[in-house]
Design a protein that fits this description.
Chain lengths: 236, 236
């Protein structure tokens, strides 16, 4: 991928960008994992930790953006390098959103446990959170190793996440109707599962960015999401 | 703002970027307005129109991104121009998300009207949608006229939107508890109001980007959102 021209200092700067993304990725992954754990255990202090982490991730993204702007201003990167730089900008934005979504799960915990949860849905919640985490981990590995070959199945995995989400959405709605005392907790859990589903979307965005960065062309085929128009289940 | 150097063709390219943003802004505004109207009237065919529009907005964003990458690759923009170019990239991403959110409201309409709505909340919904629309309109005007002086109050307006959202969230929860037959519609309306609230957030992001682009420094003060940690009301 990397081409001739001004090697040395410039290469070091590009590597610096990669390291920033890796660090942000690590933070985002940890936040998602901790948010899921806090939700499972009802652990408010772990939730507070996630909320506090989000500020560090936001700061890391601002620094990344500044680094990119300064790099563009000082250098005149060739096509391949430019692709890498723009990719860093995009991945950074997706990771920042992943952190926001994890924070939002953490923020809801108090509200979830102010009411009574439909406990029978916990295993479904765990499965959803784990699927999102594992997808995020795999796209970050693909970025770190600059390999595109395992990225194409990411869309299928995202569709699986959407399916799990849709099924959980229906179960929560049912729980609300059958056990009205779970309405408050279920409502907030709806937003929590939506957040995990969105984390899967951002992982897929990152997969697309990495694919383009590594191969120079777009990830093949479109992304027909399982959200049938006007469906009863949760497209949002 | 604009400085000396290679004027002419380059200036034309920068103006082209502005026109693209203006066009995308117009599309996003229309989609938000139409989504709100479709929701109010229960108009499924208008909802379908919004859903179809989103593809055009997505395509417009991809073209904008390509234009920016090609511009950066061919020119070596000076600091002020670079700020403008990076701003276009950011605003384009925010507008694309606004379109997604409007589309998501449109997609939920069928599900909302599969059940019975809590009709007494319609005026609150309208107020929220209008507040989001008006904020979007004003930041796009500020971008078009390159004026920063009316941008600082945007954060206060965003907090007002958050307050309206939080109050509606509580009312929907209440409706679900008091009138269980509205549970399905209310649940989907929760996601609709969340989407309008998020549109307000993106308008505020755009306000911050425009402020930085026009003045060269960050919009003053932080943005303490009204989403109290662990609160019962809807932080997501």
């Amino acid at each position: 991928m990397r081409s001739q021209h001004i090697v040395g200092a410039f290469d070091a700067e590009l590597q610096g960008l990669s390291r920033r993304i890796a660090a942000m990725g690590g933070m985002a992954e940890r936040m998602v994992e901790e948010a899921a754990t806090a939700l499972r255990r009802g652990d408010l202090s772990l939730a507070d930790h996630v909320i506090a982490s989000d500020e560090r991730l936001d700061a890391a993204q601002r620094e990344l953006d500044e680094t990119v702007v300064s790099l563009l201003a000082r250098r005149q990167p060739l096509a391949g390098d430019l692709r890498e730089i723009v990719a860093a900008l995009r991945i950074g934005a997706d990771l920042e959103r992943v952190g926001d979504l994890a924070k939002n799960v953490a923020k809801r915990l108090g509200a979830v446990d102010a009411g009574e949860r439909p406990r029978e849905l916990q295993s479904g919640l765990d499965a959803l959170a784990e699927a999102a985490q594992s997808q995020l981990k795999d796209v970050l590995d693909a970025y770190a190793t600059r390999t595109a070959d395992r990225l194409a199945p990411m869309r299928d995995r995202d569709r699986e996440i959407d399916t799990v989400f849709t099924s959980l959405f229906g179960s929560l709605l049912e729980a609300m109707m059958n056990e009205p005392r779970t309405i408050t907790a279920s409502t907030h859990l709806l937003f929590c599962i939506k957040n995990f589903e969105r984390i899967g979307d951002h992982a897929t965005n990152i997969a697309e960015t990495v694919f383009q960065m590594v191969t120079g062309h777009e990830m093949p085929a479109d992304r027909p999401k399982a959200d049938r128009t006007h469906s009863l289940s949760g497209a949002a």
